[in-house]
Structure formats: C-alpha cells, structure tokens
Amino acid sequence: MDWLERCVPNVEQLLGTYWRKEPVLLRPQEPPLEVLTLSDVDALLDAGLLRVPYVGLYTAQGSIADERFCPTRVITGNPAHGYVDAAAVRRLIDEERATLQLRYVDQWHPPVRALTGSVAERLGRLVEAFFFLSRPGRRGPVHRDDGDLLAIQLSGAKHWQVYAGPADGDWAPVREENPGAPLLDTVLEAGEVLYVPRGFAHTATAVGDASSAHLTVVVREAGAEHLRTALLTGIVDGLTLPGRPLDDDALLRTAADLLDHLGAQLDAVTPDDVIGRARPRAYSNRQTV
C-alpha cells in the first residue's frame, strides 16, 4: 500500500506546487484514520508498558515532570522508573487540561510504522510520527519544526495558523515570538490533512466540544551537520590503516596512504551521493517539549 496516497489526494501536486513553498489543507478520499484510534491509545495506556521518553504531558506552563505520571514500580525486587500510569495521565488531562504527546510512534506502533515506512520509501527521507491529544481550548505555542509536516486529524477539530518560513538557512526549530500575519488560517476536521512546509512557523488550538487527536507525520530533511557526517563517513569507507605505526617512516607512509585514499574518494563523490547518505540519518536534535 502507498500510504502517502492515503494522506494526500494528489501527491504530484503537493510535491510540485506546495512542497517547501506554502501550507495547504488537504482532503484525501481515504484518510488513514485507523492507524491510531482513541481506543488504541486507551489500550496502549492501560497495557502499562509505555515509558518515557515515548510519552510526555505538557500544559501552557511547560512540560509536566515525569514523576507525576510515572510512579516507581518494583520488578524482581528492584525499582523501575519511567513507566506510565494510565490513571495519572487521565487525571492530568482532565484536571490540568494537559496535552498528551506520544513521541516517535513509528518506533513502537506497527500500523504507524507501516505508514511512515511507506512515506519514507516514497520520498527517500527519514520519516517519524508524533501523536497529540488536547482538550478544547488548549493552544500550543508558535514554533518552527525541523521537518515537513503532514498533520492528520484523527478525531475532533483543531484550529491551525501557519506563518511564513525562515528568512535564511540559519534558522532553528524554536518558538517564534513575532511570526507576522498567518499565511493559512483554517480549522482541520477529522479526516483532513494539513501540510506545513519545513520551518514555517505555526500554532494550533483544539476547538469544538470534543478533544482533538491528530497524528503529525514529520518528513525530516538533511542539514549541514548531517551532510558533514555523511561525507566523512563515506570517504573513510574501505580504509584500513595500522593502528600504531612503529616509527616515523611508518607514520609518514600511513599519513600518505590516508591522504591518497581521501583524495580518491573525494574525486569520486558527488553532491547527490552526500545528500543520499545524509537524508535517511537526518535525526532532529531538538529537545522534546
């Protein structure tokens, strides 16, 4: 199954017209709402195996300390930390209007992994997924993300405002205090998908009478650090050198062999080669909220 076709009604139009240029509201005919339902989330919480950092809770004031919803367990007589208590999570959502975030869902939930894996294969990039559950009225901060976003509204509704992209390549995925006028101001209903280009500032508010649940599929892109790492890794492939040359002459020969190898590799490598190596490893170093 081509999961990108399930998320986007016209993939060619998205990539040719909107990709990295402007946000757009999409209405796919068969949105993948079944990959993570509210019943699934309840079952995952109740199973008792979810752990931080795969789970986080936060309010308008910031992140909620893990200790408030991850009481210490005792396993074979030893303390075990970080396991999520479902009752504590639900209490914080109800009483403090906390937003539940399930992080890197692609790493541990098979249906979501199938979706992100298919999109990654189609686009040739690293793809990850995050789930958000928010009570009506809960508004997130204006911020920029280090990836192109496909926000799939699973249930409820969310009011999104998307602002302009970065002015140059030296931006960072952080909160944005003065984003200007929104480029797109829309309410995302269940079954709709919002595309937000990489780096475009945005915020979202849960609206209506029911909680909002959405899955954000993040398509990562390589940055300068990923390119440097990919280049250095690539040009040393196949290089075998003595670990401790015995004398000065041997050390000089080893250094010469190293330079010869690097020169030959650099002559053969192309920018496309470097990008191709970097994209599948373009993990974000942004701290979770």
Automatic annotation (TrEMBL):
Keywords: Iron, Metal-binding. Residues 98-236 form the JmjC domain. Its cofactor is Fe(2+). The keyword Metal-binding applies. Gene3D superfamilies: Cupin (2.60.120.650). InterPro entries: JmjC_dom (IPR003347), NO66-like (IPR039994). It comes from the Bacteria. The keyword NADP does not apply. GO terms for molecular function: metal ion binding. PANTHER family: MINA53 MYC INDUCED NUCLEAR ANTIGEN (PTHR13096), RIBOSOMAL OXYGENASE 1 (PTHR13096:SF8). This is Cupin superfamily protein. The lineage of its organism: Bacteria, Bacillati, Actinomycetota, Actinomycetes, Kitasatosporales.
